[in-house]
Amino acid sequence: MMNINLYMFTFTIIIVSLIVNLALSLYGVLVKPNIVKKIISLTILGDSANTFAILIGYRAIYPVSPPVQLNIPPSPSDVFQLTSLSVDPLPQALVLTAIVIGLAVNIFLIFLAIQIHRLYGTLDMREIARIKGVGYE
Amino acid sequence: MLLRRLLTVFVLMVFIVLTSYTVTVLNVFGELPPRSLRPLAFWFINTSITPWLSYFSAMAPETVTAIIWDYRGLDTLFETAVFYFAIIASIALFRGIEEKSSRGRYAGLSKIVRVVSRILLPVNIAVAASIAVHGTITPGGGFQAGSAMAVAPLILIIVFSRFFLKEKGLSKNLLIALRGVGLVGIGIASILVLIVGLLSGSYAFIFQNQPKINAPIGLPSEILGFPIAGTLFIFNIFEFIAVFAGFTIIFILLSIPEDIAREALHDEH
């Protein structure tokens, strides 16, 4: 069994790196002029947020099990055993929903990007602004 | 320009430091990850399959599936609606392009790749069907199974070319119809118990699965010893069909050769 302080410190590193990921993807969405890079940043933003939600639902115990009942039909002691070992199922359900909606949004954005490229011949926001004759700032 | 870049870096650093501080030191989300279950999670796991408390139970061994299609079923219904509208909007963006693209042009990859993908495709389909059918007892369900199944047409498009898919009968319109079947199935499954209840003259709820107090009608929780958890199995199967068809439509539209698409756009203007 690993030292418990070291174990929790590992999770702190994971949390901080997820937050760095969030910051970098926000930078990409807001600052990068290329639409494809904006979409990539948006997917990284969504995935970091999802990973963070899963982490909130995890449990710092050993052993830890998925929220699946293996004994069918279960006895009351089986259910008690599962509640003492299982991770939180609710963040997993919410993240599943979030992944599918993120996917739907990404599909639509990708189609828009393809169509923009067909119409303007570029995916650079500055170029499109120049073609349309408006300023990009 | 340099000042702006420095300002951006400064803002990002402040964001990282402040958020890390609030989450790891101030513990706004509590200790991460927690050691004990939250009360809500305790309730979900305690009632996901409990035959002695059947009025509170979803009778599904997989708690996540129970939450997705039973406890929070309406959420998932609207999520399916969002997915549906995104795909409809994508099809609408590409309208008029698909019809003109049925030229007999075969490219395809080398023979090795084609033979290997012929061997692997049945495996892919079997895995996807297994995920869909076992959605109530193992991690996974309709969405995951549909995504896994959609890999098969993706491989077909890349290895054999998109016209091969059309020749085999997997056209865009057929897939839209298939997607309609899946969505109608989800809609019917959500009011199935209500219909039975109305016909037999007793109370029932929308999105009801197992019998509840005052609403004694419910679907069987298992068939021949296999726990299907009533409507959850039906939802998983139809979601599998709908997601598979939706993704395949997207892949077919994305694989339109660029010159054909440009030609169609040019004709439109």
Short key terms for the protein model shown above:
heterodimer, A: 137 residues, mainly alpha, Helix Hairpins, 5 helices, 74% helix, 0% strand, elongated, B: 269 residues, two-stranded antiparallel ribbon, 2 strands, 1% strand, globular
Quick structural summary:
The complex is a heterodimer of chains A (137) and B (269). Chain A has 137 residues and is mostly helical.
Question: What would you say this structure looks like, in words?
Answer:
The complex is a heterodimer of chains A (137) and B (269). Chain A is mainly alpha-helical. Chain A has one domain: Helix Hairpins, CATH 1.10.287. In chain A, helix 1 runs antiparallel to helix 2. With 269 residues, chain B is mostly helical. Chain B has one domain. Chain B contains ten helices and two strands, in the order ααααααααββαα. In chain B, a hairpin with a 2-residue loop joins strand 1 and strand 2. In chain B, helix 5 packs antiparallel against helix 6 and helix 8 runs antiparallel to helix 9. Chain B is globular. Classes of the chains: A mainly alpha (137), B mainly alpha (269). At the A-B interface, helix 1, helix 2, helix 3 and helix 4 of A face helix 1, helix 2, helix 3, helix 4 and helix 9 of B.
How many structurally independent domains of chain A? Answer: 1
The top level CATH class name of chain A: Mainly Alpha
Helix content of chain A: over 70%
Q: How many distinct domains of chain B? A: 1
- And the CATH topology of chain A? Helix Hairpins
> Which strand-content bin applies to the residues of chain A?
under 5%
Tally the helices of chain B: what do you get?
A: 10
Question: What shape does the CA trace of chain A take?
Answer: elongated
What average pLDDT do the residues of chain B reach?
Answer: 86
* Class by alpha and beta content of chain B: mainly alpha
Q: What is the mean predicted local confidence, pLDDT of chain A?
A: 88
Q: CATH architecture of chain A, please?
A: Orthogonal Bundle
Percentage of β-strand residues of chain B: under 5%
**How far is the N terminus from the C terminus of chain A?**
55 Å
